Amino acid sequence: MKLYMVRHGESQTNLERRFTGQAQAPLTEKGIADAKAAGERLKGLHFDRIYSSDLIRAADTARYAIPGCEPVQLPLIRELDVGAKLEWRTVAECEAEYGEELMKHRNAYDYTPYGGENEAQLAARADAFLHMLEEDPCNQVVAFSHAGFISCTLCQVLGHSFNRKHIRCLNASIAVFSYENGRWILEKWGV
Q1: Which homologous superfamily does the CATH classification assign to the domain defined by 2-188?
Q2: Hey, what long-range contacts does 122-129 have (CB within 8 A, 24 or more apart)?
Q3: Is 29 one of the catalytic residues?
Q4: Which of 29, 40, 79, 87 is catalytic?
Q5: pLDDT digits (tens, 9 = 90+) for 121-175
Q6: Residues 8, 10, 87, 117: which is the catalytic one?
Q7: What is the pLDDT of residues 14-43, one digit of tens each?
Q8: Where are the domains of the chain?
């Protein structure tokens, strides 16, 4: 099985450097163009299943990338929840209010002090998604998701956690994984 994971196109909150997490943020015009460009890179591939997060930026990316599709929306593959105390606020505002503590929590992927999730919770969701796919064998699957979730999936596949700031997951980039002989393998990153 091959799994193509596509990060959503640029959202309004990406453009404005706001914490988004699980908030509903629309795509920008550039985000729509990003999605269409991802679609060009996926052109000619047949997918047995098309999934997206249930957040509008991911679902709309799927619709622009694969015109006419209606993705199966999975809350499981949502972005890391940053919590109500940060959502929609600019990074600068939050840094001014929370200072070094925010940087410490961001580096640890731990937003529980702000009402959100931590890395272990996100990893459990990534694991559940991979196991779901293992139970429903297909030839090719595409999932439109988010940088945090896709990067965490990479960590699960590689079998260890690392500082994801060193691995870019750009808007509308594609990661390709395969499932062979009972294990997941990274084939391509950032296509």
Answers
A1: Phosphoglycerate mutase-like (3.40.50.1240)
A2: 122/80, 122/148, 122/149, 122/152, 123/152, 123/155, 123/156, 123/161, 125/76, 125/77, 125/78, 125/149, 125/152, 126/152, 126/153, 126/155, 126/156, 127/156, 128/76, 129/74, 129/76, 129/77, 129/153
A3: no
A4: 79
A5: 999 999 999 999 999 879 999 999 999 999 999 999 999 887 777 888 999 999 9
A6: 8
A7: 999 999 999 999 999 999 999 999 999 999
A8: 2-188
